[in-house]
Design brief:
The complex is a heterodimer of chains A (769) and B (138). By secondary structure, chain A is mostly helical. Helices cover 75% and strands 2% of the residues of chain A. Chain A is built from 33 helices and 2 strands. Chain A has a two-stranded antiparallel ribbon with strand order 1-2. In chain B, helix 2 packs across helix 3 and helix 2 runs parallel beside helix 5. The longest helix of chain B is centred in the C-terminal third of the chain and has 29 residues. Chain B is mainly α and 138 residues long. Chain B has 5 helices and 2 strands. Classes of the chains: A mainly alpha (769), B mainly alpha (138). Chains A and B meet through helix 28, helix 32 and helix 33 of A and helix 2, helix 4 and helix 5 of B.
Chain lengths: 769, 138
């Protein structure tokens, strides 16, 4: 049974094949591509009965067994829930993209990246090994980078993409460090192993460090305060990407990680306070700022920040009620926010703008979109009969029964939700009602491919709201069990009597409508208060980036001034200084004897080489320098040959010859030696070179004075024939024993050749006006 | 600068050099030689051709772009390693055909790997030399 492995790996395969499929099938390719997410969704659906009672299905392949790294996947309640969200919305997004980017010449790149992301995200969700999880986690960051920067001609796109990558990448590395600490203490990287050793980890002195590091990963990914700023800037991405990655799935990876880690790192005071504080701050801040935005996508982005804060807060509380509320809201938010983003994309696509102050009265032109937007907004506002109502009831219940600061949580929760109601009303009413406004394009209904996705999501919100227990109950209770094993199953009902929670809900809705009604007046008299602007954590990001660049510029200006001979000088100088320093640090050097007799031909070769080297150092003619360096090189080959290394000698001969050829080709371009090298410089370089020569001589003498450990060469000379079937030990080492090194080296060489080619081309462009 | 002597000699020499380079490649497993040296030898032959006939003519005679040699070589090298994985062995573990083939000798994945190195080296040297030679010609 290896369903999960197949799902994840197939995704990468489909992504790789997408460009070819697109050029083969043209516009119809979306019907083929959609099979992958749709098939995944169905496959996961059929698995639900197997995991309902908290069962876990694990698949494992050893990857780097020596380090305890396995490619292992697990299916439990939460991974099935999130996996179905990722694949289900993914299928709708593929269809939507086909309409949104219809005729775009780079559409196959968009499809490929979306599928690449989908596979990475499913990898995160199903990973049962922390290192595997980290790898897939970083793959989602990279695909997010490429997708935000899809319109790479725009400066703001590139800046937003880079910012998202740097912030989430920073968090990802911190998370890796946290994972390694967990693995060191727990003795395994498997999540199930670590769960059984959770007490050990929580009692360990490294616990605060690992918690902090893992939280950094989760908070940056899920845009928690103070790392929230990248998410609104990521709205530079095409709208299908915003709908999919930056509201429904990828940004939830951090929340998913928190849920996964709760069984290992959760339940302590550290966890409760750190996670709840970040969550509550983000929840309120996001809702507050969203209220002031006028770009529809930024409105939705800030409400996403707020929703992520809510999820984090709930997982920080960690009670049974809170986990229930969190997992339901996880789904609810994905459904309504995905729908609203796609609606925004349709509006933008059909009218040419998404500025709330410039659109209005679209209900006649875009009836389906209007109904969809209203339904999704109902869910967002937490009004019956949508699923959003249920999740908000659970949220309030969790706040009321919170173990600490319950009153504060209730008041901030109600305030944030009232702001959400106001924003939901804004999104549902502003674009569609009132007088029709003049827009850049004449509005009409979006094509079917663009209303199918949002309408489906809104419809699912409605159906699940009405038939929650029969349709969603099993999966949802399994998900709750996988995060909170002691939880008891609960049957969800839309209406559960008149109580304080319903009263809070009614109050929230009224307050929200009041805020919506007063919005223009509030905006007229106030901008977000000064303390909010002072909290702009983005400034810290910009300062850090600018500081790093300045520092790098200064260092480079000193050590890499663009003159090759200075690079050589610095490298040699560092080797000389460190070499002598370490030689002296190991005590006095004793050189005994001269070791073996010298032949006449040895001395002759050495003398010729010496003459060549001196000539190269003194001559003013490049041709002479090159020739005399060639003499030195051929001399070395002779020595290799005489001392039994014919392979090295042959290579050296060939390399020397080709170097002379290369020099000859560029000779005419180089300035005259006299013009660039003064006498003083020659003396300085001579001294450095002299010390380098002395260092090497001393090192060689010291090294050869030690008795040679012949075990290594004995091993290779026997093993190379017996195991690798070759008598030439040098070659067998290169292509067999250390073959991976060689593979790496030829790859580096290939890159270097392309680099040389680019440099030469660049130079020839600059040379001409 | 066209020299009749050089171009005549090169025309005769190039096939020999290429043949010899292939010989060096194949004998590498038991005698001095191998893909790296063989690749350098073959590339030197083409460099000689370039000096005799100019880079445009050399490129035409070569038929393939140097970059294609690099791609071919890397693919062969990586493919020889992955072949072992497909056969259920660890990555890059050598797999040998038992029969001895005349001239080539024993055939196994390390030989394929070495052939990959051979092509990569040819491609790299020629890529750089052609780039510089064209630059020189301008």
């Amino acid at each position: 049974m290896s369903l999960l492995t197949i799902i994840v790996l197939l995704g990468f395969l489909v992504a790789a094949l997408t460009p070819a499929l697109t050029s083969l099938l043209g516009r119809r390719v979306k019907y083929v591509l959609v099979l992958y997410p749709a098939g995944t969704f169905v496959a996961l659906w059929t698995m639900i009965p197997h995991i309902e009672n908290g069962n876990v299905i694990v698949e494992s392949f050893s990857w780097v067994p020596a380090l305890g790294v396995h490619l292992s996947f697990l299916l439990d309640g939460i991974s099935a829930l999130v996996g179905m969200i990722v694949s289900g919305i993914g299928a709708l997004i593929v269809i939507y993209t086909g309409g949104y980017l219809r005729g775009h010449e780079q559409i196959s790149r968009m499809y490929a990246l979306l599928l690449f992301f989908m596979a990475s995200m499913l990898g995160v969700v199903f990973s049962a090994n922390l290192i595997g999880l980290f790898v897939f986690w970083e793959l989602t960051s990279i695909s997010s980078y490429l997708l935000i920067g899809f319109n790479h001609e725009r400066v703001s796109s590139r800046a937003g993409a880079l910012q998202a990558l740097l912030v989430t990448g920073f968090g990802g590395l911190a998370m890796l460090a946290g994972f390694i600490l967990m693995g060191m203490v727990g003795g395994s990287y498997e999540i199930t192993d670590l769960m059984s050793r959770a007490d050990l980890l929580r009692a360990h002195e490294f616990y605060p460090a690992m918690l902090l590091l893992v939280l950094l990963g989760a908070f940056t990914k899920s845009a928690q305060f103070p790392f929230h700023f990248w998410l609104p800037n990521a709205m530079e991405a095409p709208t299908p990407v915003s709908a999919y990655l930056h509201s429904a799935t990828m940004v939830k990876a951090g929340v998913f990680l928190l849920a996964r880690m709760m069984g290992i790192l959760g339940g302590t005071d550290w966890w409760h306070y750190a996670v709840s504080f970040a969550g509550v701050a983000t929840m309120f801040l996001g809702a507050f700022v969203a209220f002031y935005q006028s770009d529809l996508k930024r409105v939705l982005a800030y409400t996403t920040v707020s929703a992520l804060g809510t999820l984090t807060l709930l997982l920080g509380l960690g009670t049974e009620e809170a986990v229930r509320a969190a997992l339901l809201f996880f789904l609810v938010h994905a459904l309504y926010k995905g729908a609203l983003f796609m609606v925004t994309g349709s509006i933008d696509h059909e009218t040419g703008t998404r500025n709330l102050d410039r659109i209005g009265g679209l209900r006649r032109a875009m009836p389906i979109t209007t109904v969809t937007a209203i339904a999704a907004s109902f869910s967002m506002a937490g009004l019956p009969p949508m699923l959003g109502f249920l999740s908000k009831e659970l949220l309030y219940e969790a706040n009321v029964q919170a173990p600490f600061a319950s009153f504060l949580l209730i008041s901030l929760g109600v305030l944030s939700n009232a702001l959400m109601v106001a924003v939901a009303a804004l999104v549902a009413i502003r674009p569609f009602f009132g007088a029709l406004r003049e827009t850049p394009k004449h509005p009409h209904e979006a094509p079917w491919s663009m209303w199918l996705g949002p309408a489906t999501l809104a419809l699912v919100s409605l159906i699940l709201g009405l038939l929650t227990a029969p349709l969603l109950g099993g999966l949802w209770n399994a998900a709750v069990l996988s995060v909170h094993p002691e939880a008891s199953p609960l049957a969800l009902k839309l209406w559960h009597g008149l109580n304080e929670i319903v009263a809070l809900s009614a109050f929230t809705a009224l307050l929200g409508l009041l805020l919506f009604w007063m919005r223009s007046r509030i905006l007229a008299v106030s901008r977000p208060p000064a303390f909010m602007r002072a909290l702009k954590a983005e400034q810290i990001y910009h300062l850090t980036i600018a500081g790093t660049l300045t520092f790098a510029k200064r260092v480079t200006a000193v050590f890499q001034d663009g003159i090759l001979r200075h690079y050589v000088m610095f490298v040699t100088l560092v080797v000389v200084v460190l070499g002598f320093w370490s030689l002296l640090a190991f005590g006095p050097i004793v050189i005994e004897g001269t070791g073996g007799g010298l032949h006449v031909h040895d001395v002759l070769i050495a003398l010729v080489m010496l003459a060549g080297a001196l000539l190269a150092a003194y001559s003013n003619s490049r041709l002479v320098v090159i020739g005399s360096l060639g003499i030195v090189g051929y001399g070395i080959s002779m020595i290799f040959l005489l001392y039994g290394a014919p392979d090295l000698a042959m290579t050296q001969f060939a390399v020397e010859t080709l170097s002379v050829v290369l020099f000859v080709l560029i000779l005419a371009r180089l300035p005259r030696i006299k013009d660039i090298v003064s006498h003083a410089v020659r003396v300085r370089d001579g001294i450095i070179a002299g010390f380098a020569g002395i260092l090497l001589t001393v090192l060689l003498v010291v090294v050869t004075a030690e008795p040679l450990n012949s075990r290594v060469s004995a091993f290779y000379s026997t093993a190379s024939f017996l195991e690798a079937k070759g008598r030439n030990v040098v070659n067998v080492i290169l292509v067999d024993f250390r073959g991976i090194d060689t593979l790496g080296e030829i790859t580096v060489l290939a890159i270097a050749a392309i680099g040389v080619f680019a440099l030469v081309r660049q130079g020839s462009k600059e040379g001409k006006p | 600068m066209k020299s009749v002597i050089l171009s005549t000699v090169v025309r005769l020499l190039l096939p020999l050099i290429l043949l010899f380079s292939f010989f060096i490649l194949l004998r590498g497993h038991n005698e001095p030689g191998g893909g790296f040296i063989g690749g350098l030898a073959a590339a030197s032959g083409w460099v000689l051709y370039l000096f005799a006939f100019g880079s445009a003519e050399a490129k035409r005679a070569l038929r393939l772009e140097p970059l294609h040699f690099i791609v071919l070589g890397l693919t062969l090298a990586l493919g020889s390693g992955l072949f072992s994985v497909v056969m259920g062995r660890p990555f890059m573990q050598g797999i040998w055909v038992d029969a001895v083939i005349p001239v080539i000798g024993k055939l196994g994945t390390p030989v394929v790997f070495d052939t990959g190195v051979y092509f990569v080296v040819i491609g790299i040297v020629l890529k750089i030399v052609f780039a510089l030679a064209e630059e020189e010609g301008r």
